[in-house]
Amino acid sequence: MPQDMPPVGGYAPVQYKRNLPASGFRPGTWLVAMGVVMTYGFYKLGQGIKEQNELAREKMWSRIHLIPLLQAEEDRDLVRRHLADQAREKELLVASRMASKVEPVLETALETDGSIKTTIV
């Protein structure tokens, strides 16, 4: 019995790889696209930081310019409180003088032995 030999011209090639079409973009295209997106993002970040710095500077200068106004308001309030305290003290002084004419005043003195001596004046 003769040995089986390959056919003349050989066997047909065996396809062991899958020929699937590449889906999506090539990696170089993705790299360029991501670079563009990130460049734009960093540009906008820089613009935002500049804007925040400008707003902070403006806020600081507005506070600096408001300090004299706030100081004057505080001074007016202190003067008003001082005048109100003086008026209240004057009222209490008049009331206490009137009360001292009517009621006797108790005077206390500390004795040498530590006891308290009370006298009516």
Show the helix and strand layout.
Blueprint: H1 27-102, E1 106-110, E2 116-120
Antiparallel strand pairs: 1-2
The total strand number stands at 2
Secondary-structure element series: HEE
Spans of at least 5 consecutive residues with low confidence: none
> With helices defined by DSSP (H or I, 4 residues minimum), what is the helix count?
1
Question: Could you write a compact summary of the structure shown?
Answer:
With 121 residues, this protein is mainly alpha-helical. 63% of the residues lie in helices and 8% in strands.
Note down, in words, how this protein is organized.
It is a single-pass membrane protein. Keywords: Electron transport, Membrane, Mitochondrion, Mitochondrion inner membrane, Respiratory chain, Transmembrane, Transmembrane helix, Transport. It comes from Xylaria multiplex. The longest helix is centred in the middle third of the chain and has 76 residues, at 27-102. With 121 residues, the protein is mainly alpha-helical. It has a two-stranded antiparallel ribbon with strand order 1-2. It is rod-shaped, with a radius of gyration of 50 Å. The chain has one domain (27-120). It has one helix spanning 27-102; strands at residues 106-110, 116-120. The chain has one helix and two strands.
